[in-house]
Design goal:
This protein is an alpha/beta fold and 198 residues long. It has a single domain, classed as 3-Layer(aba) Sandwich (Rossmann fold), CATH 3.40.50.880. It is built from six helices and twelve strands. The mean pLDDT is 95. It binds glutamine (GLN). Glutamine (GLN) binds next to α5.
């Protein structure tokens, strides 16, 4: 099926996501304005800085249009800051931090950062046969998830053991880590499957 996948391109590691998606043979587009969003069958919100992203989305008049598409059921993959953007509730956000919402989760920003800013580890991931090598960079974790939310991956050891770091709810998917780095395209493939289903 011919699909166009947008990557929210006002801030964050846009290029890395575009590279993975290009490698999967889908049509891609960087999204900076509403007319670009209109062409998308699905959207990726990358890692970066969620507070900056939400301000820029307001400035560039993308905030409400993306929210509207989410409500209509457009599939969205949020990674790291993108997960925060999709969360209905944020802990340790800034006072004026807004999110697009859609995922019935509470995320804690920079949750791992209290111990260590960045780390890597292998995670079992629902729907994938072999573990994913996950790179966490000042990552959030899911503090609480509503009944409609499926946990796709959980930290297995260390101080954060048991913390949910990947979720799905309807056509929305989010990871605390960065599936766009490290040369593994399987999480993006799962996202494309989700687009095909919807
Ligand atoms: N700490 C960042 C935020 O709050 C997220 C970090 C990332 O995307 N790598 O938005």
């Amino acid at each position: 099926m011919n699909r166009t996948i947008g990557v929210f391109a006002l801030q964050g590691d846009v290029r890395e996501h575009l590279r993975v998606l290009d490698g999967l043979g889908v049509e891609t587009i960087g999204v900076r304005r509403e007319s670009e969003l209109d062409r998308c069958d699905g959207l990726v919100i990358p890692g970066g800085e969620s507070t900056t992203m939400s301000k820029l989305a307001r400035t560039f008049d993308l905030f409400e249009p993306i929210r509207h598409r989410i409500k209509e059921g457009m599939p969205v993959l949020g990674t790291c800051a993108g997960m925060i953007m999709l969360a209905d509730r944020v802990e340790d956000g800034t006072a004026d931090q807004e999110t697009l919402g859609g995922l019935d989760i509470t995320v804690r920003r920079n949750a791992f950062g209290r111990q260590v800013d960045s780390f890597e580890g292998d995670l079992d991931f629902t729907g994938l046969d072999a573990p994913v090598h996950a790179v966490f960079i000042r990552a959030p974790w899911v503090e609480q998830a509503g009944p409609g939310v499926e946990a796709l991956a959980t930290v297995e050891e260390g101080e954060a053991a048991g913390r949910i770091v990947a979720v799905r709810q309807g056509s929305l998917m989010a990871t605390s880590f960065h599936p766009e780095v490290g040369g593994d395209d399987r999480v993006h493939r799962l996202f494309l499957d989700l687009i095909d289903e919807s």
